[in-house]
């Protein structure tokens, strides 16, 4: 089936970090998976192996902050059916990576984007469920390990308490919709949501985790179709791989959470 050519977009006010792109093959699906990574090593390699059964149903886009461990080698990614590699050429963190990946996806005509971490903790078997909900017209789909049918294992107690009793209640209050797992990066967003005039996600102020928090709170407030679906998230035993380490980073994340809750990022 030949995909329709995307209509021309007005991107004059989009603020997207500079990046270079390697495209390994043409677009062939209506939806894509965008995976932000930085030096995920064998975790990413194992995850791409697990995603292989779904590579005919959804295009895979890697958004890299500049990995130096060989995990985003173009030859390797091509062998794993990855469609494109986006590499930031300047400064930025997860929010910058997702702005770059999302802007590429929307410009290329995808009707929705599934966002997924690249650390091999998520149950990628839920990808068809996200596709189905996007096809049914949902605009924001949040994956939850705590929803009925979901699963979590080896979740650090501090992380569990922070999600269940701080982040999820606060962002749910701001969103006007009860979410149980707002820090879970596994989520889906429609093109309609990304392009909503009262969202404006392509702004330089979205550098880190505030980008995903902002997506969480705005959908229901804008009158869009929203839901939470069960997913699996399993941490490895022993040392917990995480980018949020140290008191300073945790306080910074908490500050961003409160900014999102208080509407700091809402367009004027």
CATH class: Alpha Beta
Number of helices: 8
CATH architecture: Alpha-Beta Complex
Order of helices and strands: EEHEHEHEHEEHEHHEEH
Largest sheet: 8 strands, mixed
Radius of gyration, in Å, reads: 17 Å
Total beta strands: 10
Assign the CATH topology: Spore Coat Polysaccharide Biosynthesis Protein SpsA, Chain A
What amount of the residues lies in strands? Answer: 15-25%
Shape: globular
CATH superfamily: Spore Coat Polysaccharide Biosynthesis Protein SpsA, Chain A
Roughly what is the average pLDDT, rounded to an integer? 94
Helix content: 25-40%
* Domains (count): 1
Distance between the termini: 42 Å
Features:
268 residues; alpha/beta; Spore Coat Polysaccharide Biosynthesis Protein SpsA, Chain A; 8 helices; 10 strands; 34% helix; 18% strand
Describe the structure.
- The chain has a single domain (19-261), classed as Alpha-Beta Complex (Spore Coat Polysaccharide Biosynthesis Protein SpsA, Chain A).
- It has helices spanning 41-51, 74-79, 94-107, 127-135, 157-175, 191-194, 210-221, 246-261; strands at 19-23, 31-37, 59-64, 84-88, 112-115, 140-144, 151-153, 187-190, 226-230, 232-234.
- The model has no long low-confidence stretch (mean pLDDT 94).
- By secondary structure, it is an alpha/beta fold.
- It has an eight-stranded mixed sheet with strand order 1-4-3-2-5-8-6-9, sandwiched between helices. Strands 7-10 form a two-stranded parallel sheet.
- The longest helix has 19 residues, at 157-175.
């Amino acid at each position: 089936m030949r995909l329709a050519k995307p209509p021309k977009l007005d991107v004059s006010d989009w603020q997207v970090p500079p990046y270079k792109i390697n495209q390994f093959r043409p677009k062939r699906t209506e939806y894509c998976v965008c995976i932000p990574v930085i030096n995920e090593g064998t975790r990413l390699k194992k995850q791409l192996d697990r995603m292989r059964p779904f590579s005919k149903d959804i295009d895979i886009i890697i958004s890299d902050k500049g990995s130096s461990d060989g995990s985003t080698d173009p030859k390797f990614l091509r062998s794993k059916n990855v469609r494109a590699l986006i590499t930031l050429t300047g400064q930025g963190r997860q929010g910058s990576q997702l702005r770059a990946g999302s802007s590429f996806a929307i410009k290329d005509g995808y009707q929705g984007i599934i966002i997924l971490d690249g650390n091999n903790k998520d149950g990628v078997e839920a990808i068809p469920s996200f596709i189905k909900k996007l096809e049914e017209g949902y605009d924001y789909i949040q994956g939850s390990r705590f929803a009925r049918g979901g699963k979590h294992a080896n979740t650090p107690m501090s992380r569990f308490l922070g999600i269940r009793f701080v982040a999820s209640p606060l962002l749910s209050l701001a969103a006007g919709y009860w979410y149980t797992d707002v820090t879970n990066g596994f989520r889906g967003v429609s093109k309609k949501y990304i392009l909503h005039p009262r969202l404006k996600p392509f702004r330089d102020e979205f550098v880190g985790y505030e980008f995903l928090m902002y997506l969480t709170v705005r959908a229901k407030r804008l009158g869009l179709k929203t839901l939470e679906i069960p997913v699996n998230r399993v941490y490895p035993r022993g040392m917990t791989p995480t980018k949020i380490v140290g008191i300073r980073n945790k306080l910074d994340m908490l500050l961003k959470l409160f900014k999102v809750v208080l509407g700091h990022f809402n367009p004027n």
